[in-house]
Write a structure and sequence with these properties.
Organism: Paenibacillus segetis
Helix content: 40-55%
Protein name: General stress protein
Number of strands: 3
Largest sheet: 3 strands, antiparallel
Strand order of the largest sheet: 1-3-2
Domain General stress protein 17M-like: 10-104
Distance between the termini: 19 Å
Number of domains: 1
Mean pLDDT: 85
Shape: globular
Number of helices: 6
Structural class: alpha+beta
Low-confidence stretches: 1-6
Strand content: 5-15%
Length: 114
């Protein structure tokens, strides 16, 4: 099994097709479907990619109840940054990745269960 499984992994890809391919590559290295998350700027796109790739969306399990409820009142950018932070990234990293999402890119994030 690849050493990639021992640490968090994030990849910025151009589109949903590349996201699906990346999810398949991560599964081949030993990650389980429930350890792989996809995130796009548009919620519908996130749902479609997650379903196609058999990956997860960042939800209440990762964010916690407070942040999940708070996201109902946040701008989409604030919500995306909160979701990224909930997976263990810093605010600065979340800001960088959120800008990539603004450009239409997709994030594929894999992590070991805490």
């Amino acid at each position: 099994m690849s050493s990639i499984v021992n640490k968090s992994y994030v990849k910025v890809v151009q589109n949903g097709l590349q996201a699906v391919e990346t999810v398949q590559e991560l599964r081949a290295t030993g990650y389980l479907s429930e350890q792989i998350f996809v995130l796009a700027h548009n919620q519908d796109q996130t749902e479609r990619i997650a379903e196609s790739a058999n990956a997860e969306e960042i939800g209440i399990k990762e964010e916690g109840v407070f942040d999940t409820i708070a996201n109902l009142f946040r701008s989409r950018g604030d919500e995306l940054r909160a979701k990224i932070v909930s997976l263990g990234f810093t605010e600065a990293e979340a800001g960088f990745y959120e800008k990539e999402l603004d450009l239409g890119k997709v994030l594929v994030i894999a992590r070991q269960n805490p």
